[in-house]
UniProtKB/TrEMBL annotation, chains A, B:
Keyword Kinase: no
Segments traversing the membrane: none
Stated name of the protein: LLM class flavin-dependent oxidoreductase
Family: Belongs to the NtaA/SnaA/DszA monooxygenase family.
Residue ranges constituting the Luciferase-like domain according to the UniProt record: 25-383
Record carries keyword Nucleotide-binding: no
Annotated InterPro entries: Diverse_substr_monoxygenases, Luciferase-like_dom, Luciferase-like_sf, NTA_MOA
Length: 444, 444
């Protein structure tokens, strides 16, 4: 037993996080552009009292659209729609600092925060996809380091814009004819390396002051960035010890930035595959894995290593670890390539086994088991300071999510680990985060 | 009597289109960031069977936030929210070609079109506001000509992206394991002066194929652009003869581009101020005009003429027409400055009178009168080929809109001029526009 409350986010995929989920009868591939599909998912998650739901975004279709379900809706518009069909759950949209302008992004998130009554979150990404670059006039992706440098300035600009109207700037005095107190609306006058932005924003300060900042960087640069800005962190962790190391490192780095380590919630990914017995769960996992195609797995693995071609290796032999590109040279998703190499080192799989191993969670933890086993895992990792909660990644939708909500959540609630009902209205309240004051607010 | 059906769009303002509307007791300035305010407005317009509602966008706050209600929500997120509380009305968002990337814009509109079941429209603007430039790294606005040149290439890119998935690209064949037919998903390979975009879009083709293209250019360049691309046109017209000239010119230009002139609906702005008698309507107009402040009017007038300072002129004297900057030198809103000069020439107002004259509609037609008089005006302009319908600009909200819906719409319906109920579901159907086939579709 512990008094620590855990946090749950659902990572809303296309048909499911399993690569072959669209081929599984429990998924609904025909509904990817149907807003009611997402409304249904949001309703299930809200019934499960989840802190938030989250939409990823790649700004390009992947290379295997022939075999992999793709083409969902754009996150900010979709979450604005979901705000109206939900009342409490947080709404986290991914948006890129590499391929957009901070003024446009700041106001769309501020607007979503108003529309949802304080439930908006921004998953800050630098866009690891090489395909995205070609949609924005670049022959190739900028380097990992350059992307994080731009991201840092970008976030500074966005936060200034969110603060540019103080909370009480609107005076609305009809007698005096004063709509707003211009002393409480601030030009930000940002002049930096990548951006020059005058401001103020064209939208008054939003309910949360600043929408919640989420990030998923796990490389050295990524952790530094997250420790400085993130209020929630998504991460791929396979192993308790490694996850504890990541957890301790990020909290320590946050402290070094003068932040309260409790102000960053660390949420490793977890893809549960549930069965009423362990055998049943494993059978379901097998069924899903049997639907995978090596050609798809090879393309995905290749993407994790900047396009390196693994198809030259025989499927049923082990690949020597030296044959992989070194993670520190990877310009896409540095840390994820490391997670994969750790698996290779630990488990020494054949190429075919490795592809199956990654089909469920792309490097995130997949756990096939009973609801109790999944709840035990969650409890253990939180108690052992490897996590503040989890980023739940259902293998198929919506059934994988509703099984978790109906079978695992009640166990967590019974153990006193998870809320039985929402106690606040804003995403900040769910995550136990303070509401920032505007940096421009005059001292009283 | 005529068989011609008219089209009605409501231009949703902050507190109203009258500059001083927020000071009027019938407006609700405290609700500008409240999504329910817009839901209420959308419900009124849908009750009135309007074709569409429209949100403008400046990408900056204006200079007179002390005295003018500003700071509403961002159009694309707001309309995505309104899609859920409405079922038929078209949803038109303004978005700038000057300060955004076509890939980002294309997918947000495609997403809105999916979310709304085919009700999205894009008001294409080049952003005339000088303030906006400073929020996007520019010291000053690009020239009128440069903005339209970029806009032309931008729209080409967006339309290619919208077409990049053919309608039937998703095959969803679980037996063969084929999710999509890659022969029907097309890289667009755009290489132009301002943009290089590979594509395809990351969202399947939307219900309307292409969201409806709306534009409000009225200068020579603007008309050329509109005649080539626009399916609906907003325009400011004071005078029947001038409006007829504009109407004929745009339809002729459309024909020259090989387009069906009926495929462009021309919607002049109209701000009705209603009373049960003409005297009552005029009294309401006076009441609103009396709330104006010359300091606000001067700032607005100055904005129409690229910052030219009118405050040096005595308020109660006529300004000689030669004192105004010449419209063709104006880099912001060329055509609107011409509309204002025409008023000066025709009516020879003092500066104070001119400011009052512009307070209601900023150059758009303001009509204070009985519901019958307003209906007569609408009928006359449509019959006289000066308009295909109107862009209704209520002086104050929501009361100005509900008065129009309750008092003017029934007259138009009784005269057989306007629909009694929706006959279609998409914005294209309301406006009688065909659904474009993907340019990449293979002939059968
Ligand atoms: C759960 C999760 C979701 C992510 N979603 C996205 C996404 O939607 N778009 C994206 O470009 N990157 C996404 N990423 C990648 C991260 O932003 C980051 O690039 C990655 O975790 C590697 O970290 P690094 O950049 O520090 O090497 C995600 C990562 C995780 C763990
Ligand atoms: C009803 C109406 C609404 C408009 N809304 C916007 C807007 O939201 N944002 C913007 O930058 N320009 C807006 N404009 C300006 C037009 O895009 C255009 O710049 C203006 O009509 C002048 O035409 P011109 O650019 O061809 O001179 C609007 C114009 C009209 C008539």
């Amino acid at each position: 037993m512990t008094n620590k409350h855990i946090h749950l986010n659902v990572f809303v995929p296309t048909t499911g996080h399993h690569e072959a989920s669209w081929l599984y009868s429990g998924s609904q591939p025909e509904r990817l552009t149907d807003v009611d599909y997402y409304r249904e998912i949001a309703a299930i998650a809200e019934r499960g009292k989840f802190d938030s739901l989250f939409l990823a975004d790649q700004l390009a279709i992947g290379r295997s659209v022939k075999h992999v379900a793709q083409g969902k809706l754009e996150p900010l518009t979709l979450l604005s729609a979901l705000a109206g069909s939900t009342s409490h759950i947080g709404l986290i949209a991914t948006a890129s600092t590499t391929y957009s302008e901070p003024y446009n992004l700041a106001r769309q998130f501020a607007s979503l925060d108003h529309i949802s009554g304080g439930r908006a979150g921004w998953n800050i990404v630098t866009s690891w996809s090489a395909e995205a670059a070609g949609n924005f006039g670049l022959d190739q992706r900028n380097s990992h380091t350059d992307r994080y440098r731009r991201a840092t300035e970008y976030v500074e600009v966005v936060r200034k814009l969110w603060d540019s109207w103080e909370d009480d700037a609107r005076v609305l005095d009809r007698t005096l004819g004063i709509y707003a107190d211009t002393a409480r609306i601030h030009a930000i006058g940002h002049q930096g390396e990548a951006f020059r932005v005058r401001g103020p924003l064209d939208i008054p300060r939003s309910p949360q002051g600043n929408p919640v900042l989420v990030q998923a960087g796990s490389s050295d640069e990524g952790r530094g960035f997250a420790a400085r800005y993130a209020e929630a962190i998504f991460t791929a962790q396979q192993d308790l010890g490694e996850a504890q190391g990541f957890y301790a490192d990020v909290k320590r780095r946050a402290l070094a930035f003068g932040r309260d380590p409790d102000g960053i919630k660390i949420l490793p990914g977890l893809s549960p595959i549930l069965g009423s017995t362990e055998a049943e769960a494993r059978a379901l996992e097998e069924e899903l894995d049997d639907l995978t195609l090596p050609v798809v797995g090879l393309k995905h693995l290749s993407q994790r290593f900047d396009g390196f071609d693994f198809s030259v290796f025989p499927l049923d032999e082990r690949i020597p670890i030296e044959a992989f590109p070194r993670p520190e040279t990877v310009q896409g998703a540095q840390s994820r390539s490391q997670v994969i190499l750790n698996i290779v080192e630990r488990e020494k799989p054949t190429l075919r086994q490795l592809l199956r191993r990654l089909a469920g969670g792309r490097g995130h933890k997949v756990l096939a088991g009973t609801p109790k086993a999944v709840a035990d895992h969650i409890q253990l990792w939180v108690e052992q300071r490897a996590a503040d909660g989890f980023n739940i990644m259902p293998a198929f939708m919506p059934g994988g999510l509703s099984a978790f909500v109906d079978e695992v959540v009640p166990i967590l609630q019974a153990r006193g680990l998870f809320r039985r009902d929402y106690t606040g209205r804003s995403l900040r309240e769910h995550y136990g985060l303070t509401r920032p004051e505007s940096r421009y607010a005059r001292s009283a």
